[in-house]
Write a structure and sequence with these properties.
about 150 residues; mainly alpha; 6 helices; about 70% helix; disordered N terminus
C-alpha cells in the first residue's frame, strides 16, 4: 500500500510542462500522512471519517518506525530511546511493544474523542507529526550507515 501511495505522489504532476519533483518512498509516505493530518476544527466536528484516517496514518507511521528502527539497528546504529533500548537486539519484542503502545494510544484517543473531538484531533495530529519526524530521523541515520531502508 505504501508503495502505491509513493508512486501516486511521485508520478503526479501537471500537464502544462512544469517540472515535477521526484520524492523518495519515505518522503512520499510522509507527505501522504501530512495530507491526512491537515484538518481544521470544523472538519473534525463535521466529518466522523477524519479519525479513522488519522488512526491509519498513525498505524502506518508506527510500522515504518519499527521497520526503520530494526534496519538501522542492524546497520550498527544505537537506539536513542532508553525505553526501547533493551529491545534493540530482539526485533519481535520491539514490534510487539510498538504494537501494544500504538493500540493503547489509539484506545486513549478514542476515549478522548467521545468527550472532546477537537482535543482528540489535535492529539492525533501532534502524535502523527512527531512520529513523522522520528521516521525521517531513522531514514537519515540509515542513509549515513548506508543501510538499505
Amino acid at each position: 500500500m505504501m508503495l502505491a501511495v509513493a508512486l501516486s505522489l511521485c508520478c503526479s504532476g501537471t500537464a502544462s510542462g512544469q517540472e515535477v519533483r521526484r520524492f523518495s518512498i519515505h518522503e512520499a509516505a510522509l507527505l501522504h500522512v501530512a495530507r491526512l493530518d491537515t484538518l481544521s476544527a470544523q472538519t473534525v466536528r463535521a466529518a466522523p471519517s477524519a479519525f479513522p484516517r488519522m488512526y491509519v496514518a498513525f498505524g502506518l507511521l508506527q510500522a515504518v518506525d519499527a521497520h526503520s528502527t530494526i534496519v538501522t539497528l542492524k546497520g550498527g546504529a544505537k537506539e536513542a530511546n532508553p525505553l526501547i533500548g533493551g529491545l534493540a537486539g530482539n526485533p519481535a519484542a520491539l514490534v510487539a511493544v510498538k504494537a501494544a503502545s500504538a493500540a493503547a494510544t489509539l484506545y486513549c484517543v478514542e476515549r478522548l474523542r467521545k468527550k472532546n473531538r477537537v482535543a482528540a484531533a489535535v492529539t492525533m495530529a501532534a502524535l502523527n507529526s512527531a512520529y513523522a519526524v522520528v521516521v525521517m530521523n531513522n531514514a537519515r541515520v540509515a542513509a549515513k550507515l548506508n543501510s538499505r531502508f
